[in-house]
Design goal:
Elements: H1 3-17, H2 22-62, H3 69-92, H4 98-101, H5 104-119, H6 123-131, H7 145-202
Helix pairs in contact: 1-7, 2-3, 2-5, 2-6, 2-7, 3-5, 3-7
Length: 203
């Protein structure tokens, strides 16, 4: 483990984080509803999910185990349901004042939405499983705390760097009078993504 490996891993994950998807959609809808605080707390929840997926992937990769087909199907079904539910919820939800978001219960709720959306992306686990072997020492057999911190910090830091532009852009659009179209389009994207996941499983 070295600084060069950390930077390389962070760079690879940063590029992946820039690709628009369900994370960007949730940040957009949260920011449209409650401004910069909403987008920030949603991002915090997403980063917590990235941490969970990266640790799980590292443990699985070092254990030389693969995801079972049953588990993979269950993860996909759960993903589709969560995306649909949160998409419909944010589509119908009324705008929330930024001051209200500053209260602990509201902060926890917005962050929880981010966590659920992040965990509803099992492709993150697959991505990390394919990414980590190139950066993990060949002789490593089990992750210790130092290794978990090393790799997870690279993932979380680079994911944050990739998501911050979405928070800033969404906030600018909301302040520019486009909060309602932003909320509708981002929430609709979550519904669409969830529907596509479930539809694909039935074909």
């Amino acid at each position: 483990m070295s600084l060069e490996i950390w930077i390389a891993l962070a760079a690879a994950n940063f590029i992946a984080s820039l690709v628009p998807g369900q994370n960007a959609a949730l940040i957009g809808s949260s920011t449209a509803r409650s401004g910069l605080p909403g987008g920030s707390f949603a991002m915090a929840g997403i980063l917590a999910a990235e941490l969970i997926w990266s640790v799980a992937a590292l443990v699985i990769a070092l254990g030389a185990r693969e995801l079972s087909p049953t588990l993979w199907t269950a993860l996909q079904i759960g993903s589709g349901i969560v995306l649909l539910a949160l998409g419909l919820h944010t589509l119908r939800a009324a705008p929330v004042d930024a001051i209200d978001v500053g209260r602990a219960p509201r902060r926890a709720r917005v962050a929880a939405h981010g966590l659920w959306i992040g965990l509803a992306n099992p492709m993150a686990l697959v991505f990390f499983l394919s990414l980590f072997p190139a950066f993990v020492p060949v002789n490593a057999t089990a992750p210790d705390l130092g290794m978990l911190v090393f790799y997870a910090s690279a993932v979380v830091a680079s994911s944050a760097a990739g998501l911050v532009p979405y928070v800033i852009a969404s906030n600018a659009l909301a302040k520019g009078g486009l909060a309602v179209p932003l909320q509708i389009s981002c929430s609709g994207m979550l519904v669409l993504l969830g529907g596509l996941v479930l539809l694909r499983l039935t074909l």
